[in-house]
Amino acid sequence: MSPNATEEDVAAVVARVEGVGGEAFVSKGVVRTIIGLVGDLESFHHLNLRTLRGVADVHRISDPYKLVSRQHHPDRSTVWVGPAGRQVPIGPDSFTFLAGPCAVETPEQTLAAAQMAKGAGATILRGGAYKPRTSPYAFQGLGVRGLEILADVGRATGLPVVTEVVDARDVAVVAEHADMLQVGTRNMANFGLLQAVGEAGKPVLLKRGMTATIEEWLMAAEYIAQRGNLDVVLCERGIRTFEPATRNTLDISAVPVVQATSHLPVIVDPSHAAGRKDLVVPLSRAAIAVGADGIIVDVHPEPETALCDGPQALLGADLRELAQAVRRLPSAVGRVDAGELSRTA
Amino acid sequence: MSPNATEEDVAAVVARVEGVGGEAFVSKGVVRTIIGLVGDLESFHHLNLRTLRGVADVHRISDPYKLVSRQHHPDRSTVWVGPAGRQVPIGPDSFTFLAGPCAVETPEQTLAAAQMAKGAGATILRGGAYKPRTSPYAFQGLGVRGLEILADVGRATGLPVVTEVVDARDVAVVAEHADMLQVGTRNMANFGLLQAVGEAGKPVLLKRGMTATIEEWLMAAEYIAQRGNLDVVLCERGIRTFEPATRNTLDISAVPVVQATSHLPVIVDPSHAAGRKDLVVPLSRAAIAVGADGIIVDVHPEPETALCDGPQALLGADLRELAQAVRRLPSAVGRVDAGELSRTA
Amino acid sequence: MSPNATEEDVAAVVARVEGVGGEAFVSKGVVRTIIGLVGDLESFHHLNLRTLRGVADVHRISDPYKLVSRQHHPDRSTVWVGPAGRQVPIGPDSFTFLAGPCAVETPEQTLAAAQMAKGAGATILRGGAYKPRTSPYAFQGLGVRGLEILADVGRATGLPVVTEVVDARDVAVVAEHADMLQVGTRNMANFGLLQAVGEAGKPVLLKRGMTATIEEWLMAAEYIAQRGNLDVVLCERGIRTFEPATRNTLDISAVPVVQATSHLPVIVDPSHAAGRKDLVVPLSRAAIAVGADGIIVDVHPEPETALCDGPQALLGADLRELAQAVRRLPSAVGRVDAGELSRTA
Amino acid sequence: MSPNATEEDVAAVVARVEGVGGEAFVSKGVVRTIIGLVGDLESFHHLNLRTLRGVADVHRISDPYKLVSRQHHPDRSTVWVGPAGRQVPIGPDSFTFLAGPCAVETPEQTLAAAQMAKGAGATILRGGAYKPRTSPYAFQGLGVRGLEILADVGRATGLPVVTEVVDARDVAVVAEHADMLQVGTRNMANFGLLQAVGEAGKPVLLKRGMTATIEEWLMAAEYIAQRGNLDVVLCERGIRTFEPATRNTLDISAVPVVQATSHLPVIVDPSHAAGRKDLVVPLSRAAIAVGADGIIVDVHPEPETALCDGPQALLGADLRELAQAVRRLPSAVGRVDAGELSRTA
């Protein structure tokens, strides 16, 4: 309460809180009075306490998410990706390497990239059929044809596939072809899309909004969970800051912060965070060491002709260096390669 | 090019640029060579120059938007909102005041808010039927019922109405009831939605993404324009920064920056930028003085019971002070009230 | 407290708070306990409550500054600048226009700029003798020779002068020549310098750190006040954000936020915020309209040869437009020109 | 150049560039002309090209720093810290662990912390005698008495010591007692201090300003180098972003970015970045894995009574876990412990 709040002002706040079934504890100091609210957070949503006379400020103390919180679900979860018979885990015991081309361009390019990915140790294939692009004049993806190519290549290589869905109207067709649905950074707060993927019956890879706080990101996961789907994997991919040397600033601390707060698995995308090929390997090593449950990386057989994000795609020596890090480092932090834990038929 | 780039590296860049019909001018210094590219920006999208050997960095010099740029359309545009017979302008000669409740809750509340808005000088009514909320447990709006209430109140008060659409699947029904479609800050990069409103045949109010650069915001407008709709009004509503005293930081400079670059009208939303009632009047005055083409403000007959953003809604003395500013200040910067310029039957 | 905190954990916190003379009010909920602390904030500095078992988080509710707060000093202050006989006010009743060259280069350039400033309505002259520059290879200012030129020009034109001091070792010599000492954005957290200017016996112009929160800025003012100098004028000059269109983002909301919290005057520097000449006039109008107590603007007789920040310096038609705004707009928001309130002998 | 720039405008730019001995290459397109400048960057400082008619924008392509750049110094440097006979390296071949209390409080506390640090594998002792604090009411350090305690403890344990200097007037006395001078995050742009430590004859630990770009940070190092001191170690300690879960956001990418650009060693401070004890170990692992040349960590024998930053100080099980990571991980990325490379008499 403000220093000049009256007894009546305090009483009005208490009455309003009690009116929705909450409890209000008054702590009266010489200069200032603090009122502690206890009760069901949902019932407090429309209290509008800031509009009451004498109220200086309102701070929320407890977390606003429930289903994705560790509070009532202390054990960290494992999400299984892929059709029965070849399911790959993402979770606290394993380390999962997802790789593939930013965009599906042709069957040949996709197959070549998938083979590169698999050769480097990847156990899940990523590839984009719908590409949200800042410019309406940039390549927007192959759509359904891209989904078909990706599914074919997934079957040919034995890798489950994850691909982005950018519009709630496309969720059904994407869920038909893919093993995991990705919600991209620009759509993290597209609540209609979150609800649609929550009902699609497939695991979801939820990228962090490039300007979302960790709490907002977990609230987005809560939207999916609320529709009955708890198979959500979070993906840190860099946040927008003032630093221009990298496309975004990889918030590596988000990994342990999320793991302390939520039971959901969390992986890292070093390719999109940095936007620069030369940073992908060191940032992947950092992600493994910090305790991420996996990484997702762009690979492309010919980056210089890629229709999307060529400058960050790995191949050749860089990819070999990454493969080596993925093989060796996880065991140094107590992890097993996801391939070894896969549920094969 | 990097200092150690070879003649062959330079030649490879030149060849690639010329291969898509562009021109490449080579500026050779003692330490470093710079290559200036000239040509159609669209054809340069997939050059992937950063992947070529010897390339140190690539800077784009020209603007990536076309239809919304002042370059080929030097005169600033006016957008007319409302049905034939009572159209209100938003543009360079007038100052337009949009006001109404954050959310449509009941017919009575909406009518009361509309009358408050009109009494204070507003000529366009805003009100939300679909509310994108960070929490899935918060009030999400009345949907179609809200649209009907808003349309009724608009007819009753003679005010054209603007309301937000959050899902491409709802664009048709919203366009049926509203005179102007709002795309909210969280959906500024929802490209499917942008394309859908671009085809809906109604003017669009495009809020700036809270973490979007001005260039990205204009690219979002370009998505709408590209579908044939140039009746786009931009709305600055605060950006995310490190400062916690306000909900977002109103980027007041964005108004003259946009006006120098684009022909589209631009207005300011001081309510959502600040999130605090006590800042709405001073920020509205600043918006008028900086040269904005209008403002959009939350009003509510009973903020303490509002289902959405009560703490920022105006009423009483604050609203009278705002009404006074809206009446007096625009003329001090060479503007006429939009009401006087309305095209009435 | 965390959900799993025990009775002992709660008791330990209470004991520690009471140990330094504070009071601790315990609010016990079903899931979570909140402890409200009341007492002298200073005595709480070393409690380290976050290190205690069971403590989930600690939020400070009251303001950490005292001398600069409006809490015990509700009337807003006026600071008088200049020698006895020609003192100019900066405060709530007036509007003060400060102008001059970014850097003092020669007697002729400084005099010409001062005459331009005075002709446009400025009543205080600014000019830099010590320039903190990002590059060690850039012009660093004329030092003492610059102070002498500035003082001469101030006397010749009858304008009090303000100039920046960048090093605690220079405070005495700067205070000898100038009527007001400026602490620049890069030195806002240079606590040794703040203490030195706090003891120099001259009013201080304290620029906001380009990445400082409003609270940190007020704490910097508290450092000066604590040394006995309450003649501090705050200056908002833009904060660092992700937006590249302007050099910094002018946080126009900071003006009313500061005025609600602190009794100190607050002015705006639109030149350094924008870094672009074409934005100076609209942003100055916005600053007047939002209720700033003054503005400080770069002018230069020949911007194209300026040794510092030429691109943002005004002259000619722009300066005339600014002069007109400064003459007319303040009265529209209830202000009188500072020149009319000056205490002349 | 702007699309409407004339031939004369272009010629004026070229003339001005050539006037200071530079070369200007003109690339003329259908819509737009680009002028590439080649020459000595220093001579371009006062060209003020943005003030010339027809100039749309100016982009700098080359790096503004020289002495700290890898361009003319491709091999990465090693900085040796400590008196002859027990010098510890920080550089590309080793991994150096610096630890100690945030603030020197008493001889006993400092010795206990130093022994903890040494026991965990640290080879350099850190400890603060001068503490820059946001609040003038917070503990500001013991000053010279703190320097004496630190030096004593350094001798007793055989560890070289690093301590912060916050005022140019204190550089001499700090250099007398310490083996390495630290410039803190708030003083990164205190150019007088940078020049003073550049002349002090001791290695410098330069923390990144919490809101400085990597380029500005390297320019700060250039200030030191320009005074003849190339023994500068950079320290990434988190940047200010919108994310509130951590005190600052550790910019882990800055490590490989700096190493690609500058020959100076770069270490990481996970304690100050996170401000939370539970993140120090995972972030230290990430720092090692990303390729940092060292880490600097807060340890304290009794964090709950610490006078400064207690919540982030390690002890007990956390410190043992960190010690283990420091022992094992560096070899996984090709590094040797700095202790093994020390130059002992």
TrEMBL record, chains A, B, C, D:
SUPFAM superfamilies: Aldolase (SSF51569). Keywords: Transferase. Residues 1-62 form the DAHP synthase ferredoxin-like domain. The keyword Protein biosynthesis does not apply. Residues 87-327 form the DAHP synthetase I/KDSA domain. One of its GO terms (molecular function) is 3-deoxy-7-phosphoheptulonate synthase activity. InterPro entries: Aldolase_TIM, Class-I_DAHP_synthase, DAHP1/KDSA, DAHP_snth_FXD, DAHP_syn_2. Its EC number is 2.5.1.54. The keyword Transferase applies. This is 3-deoxy-7-phosphoheptulonate synthase. It comes from Nocardioides abyssi. The lineage of its organism: Bacteria, Bacillati, Actinomycetota, Actinomycetes, Propionibacteriales. The gene is aroF.
